[in-house]
Automatic annotation (TrEMBL), chain A:
Protein name, as recorded: GTP cyclohydrolase 1
Source species taxonomy: Eukaryota, Metazoa, Chordata, Craniata, Vertebrata
Catalytic activity field: GTP + H2O = 7,8-dihydroneopterin 3'-triphosphate + formate + H(+)
Organism: Pelusios castaneus
Keyword Zinc: yes
Region Disordered, residue ranges: 1-61
UniProtKB/TrEMBL annotation, chain B:
Any one Gene Ontology BP term: tetrahydrobiopterin biosynthetic process
Family stated for the protein in its record: Belongs to the GTP cyclohydrolase I family.
HAMAP family linked: FolE (MF_00223)
Full protein name: GTP cyclohydrolase 1
Key words of the record: GTP-binding, Hydrolase, Nucleotide-binding, Tetrahydrobiopterin biosynthesis
PANTHER family in UniProt: GTP CYCLOHYDROLASE 1, GTP CYCLOHYDROLASE I
Pathway, per record: Cofactor biosynthesis; 7,8-dihydroneopterin triphosphate biosynthesis; 7,8-dihydroneopterin triphosphate from GTP: step 1/1
Family matches, as Pfam families: GTP_cyclohydroI (PF01227)
Length: 245, 217
């Protein structure tokens, strides 16, 4: 399928670029259902073919301007960037921010290529309580929580830590929790063509806890169910029960 | 008013670095709105430097939101201990230990500008005066950048001492540092605990033990 990308950077780094502000590439929307129903040679989608939008060299090149931005921030807040505790803070903060967004440097294919195995297993596989740390794209403030993933394999299983790596790639970006949930589900679908996938994320948003409404204990829960997890209530219920215990 | 502006424009080394100076400057500072454009521009350049596309829908207003959020998280600079405490000190004839525990605290670490949060436990032995405590915490923790958890603990203890002249003060902070959890060593469950004991809570082991026991359960 053609993708009318104006340039690598405009292919929004989180894989959903073509849907937003780029009507010419509307053909490449990620699917709502897994591709297994359509046979083996399904066309590939952004998360699979995603290009790396950032490299280590980019990081090095951008570090000084990021540090300068943080110095401005410190000054604008009324602090004194020359005092001892703050001298290196712009550099540390810039490096930390690059680390928190390192998902832009990685692609799914890097991580998964050799960890897909043929197994004759068709019972649910669940990996739960995967710690997740991300940044909300609206306030640049962390949101942290747990991800629970379940899937019904269709002749192929994924190395278990790869599920956690998929979470890492997508969560280490500027994110919206709903989008993060969906991206994880779609990535697993594209990699394995399973019978179904379910992803649930429970997170605490610091932007709600530390500012704004300041609700300490509230959690946000989002979920994406694809394939048989969506169609069949019993499967979905089994998944939700198993992640609860 | 003009005097404070001159203070701000001097090179950092020449401005007194005492807490009083900084507080005064913060309080007399012009409306925060004056700083907002600079903050927004800084955040915009951060988004670009990270390889993101600031023109996409989700990020269009992010520089403004992030700038305002940061101002909120550091608004302790605009407040002073005296303002907060002056109307919350009461005369009470009570000389048994007063403990306020599990006060939620959120702040930013001055080394990485990443949140750390946890709980503050305070105990003091009043001599005739008691105080509304949660407001006091509010100022110090929102002085974000002052912090280093050790210093925060000590500042809270000193502020209470100055305001009330109690027989003793103890402050304990247990916090999780996102800079350790989200990056670096990435230790999920570790907590940092710091404490400051002053006066009779430092001298007398039994008093200190009573405090530590009472905050435990």
């Amino acid at each position: 399928m053609e993708q009318g990308k104006p340039g690598p950077r405009a292919l929004s780094c989180n894989g959903y670029g073509p849907e937003e502000k780029q009507p010419s590439a509307a053909a490449s929307r990620p699917p709502e259902k897994p591709r297994c129903a359509q046979g083996a040679s399904a066309p590939s989608l952004e998360s699979w073919k995603e290009e790396r939008t950032r490299s280590e060299e980019d990081n090095e090149m951008n570090l000084p301007s990021l540090a300068a931005a943080y110095t401005t921030i410190l000054r604008s807040l009324g602090e004194d960037p020359e005092r001892q505790g703050l001298l290196r803070t712009p550099w540390r903060a810039a490096t930390a921010m690059q680390f928190f967004t390192k998902g832009y440097q990685e692609t799914i294919s890097d991580v998964l290529n050799d960890a897909i195995f043929d197994e004759d297993h068709d019972e649910m596989v669940i990996v739960k309580d995967i710690d997740m740390f991300s940044l909300c794209e609206h306030h640049l403030v962390p949101f942290i929580g747990k991800v629970h993933i379940g899937y019904l394999p269709n002749k192929q299983v994924l190395g278990l830590s790869k599920l956690a790596r998929i979470v890492e790639i997508y969560s280490r970006r500027l994110q919206v929790q709903e989008r993060l949930t969906k991206q994880i589900a779609v990535a697993i679908t594209e990699a394995l063509r399973p019978t179904g996938v379910g992803v649930v994320i429970e997170a605490t948003h610091m932007c709600m806890v530390m500012r704004g409404v300041q609700k300490m204990n509230s959690k946000t829960v989002t979920s994406t169910m694809l394939g048989v997890f969506r169609e069949d209530p019993k499967t979905r219920e089994e998944f939700l029960t198993l992640i609860r215990s | 008013m003009s005097r404070s502006r001159v203070l701000r424009l001097l090179p950092a080394g020449q401005v007194g670095s005492g807490r009083g100076q900084r507080e005064k400057r913060g309080r007399e500072e012009a409306a925060k709105g004056a700083e907002l454009p600079a903050l927004e521009a800084a955040y915009l350049s951060i988004l670009q430097g990270l390889g993101e596309n600031p023109a996409r829908q989700g990020l269009l207003l992010t520089p403004t939101r992030a700038a305002r959020a940061m101002q909120f998280l550091t608004k302790g600079y605009q407040e002073s201990t005296e303002d907060i405490l002056n109307d919350a000190i009461f005369d009470e004839d009570h000389n048994e230990m007063v403990i306020v525990k599990d006060i939620d605290m959120f702040s930013l670490c001055e080394h990485h500008l990443v949140p750390f949060f946890g709980k503050v436990h305070i105990g003091y032995l009043p001599t005739k005066k008691v105080v509304g405590l949660s407001k006091l915490i509010g100022i110090y923790v929102k002085k974000v950048l002052v912090l280093v958890q050790e210093r925060l603990t000590r500042q809270i203890a000193l502020a209470i001492t100055e305001a009330l002249k109690p027989a003793g003060v103890a402050v304990i902070i247990e916090a999780s540092h996102m800079c350790m959890v989200m990056r670096g060593v990435q230790k999920m469950n570790s907590k940092t605990v710091t404490s400051t004991m002053l006066g009779v809570l430092r001298e007398d082991p039994k008093t200190r033990e009573e405090f530590l026991t009472l905050i435990k359960n």
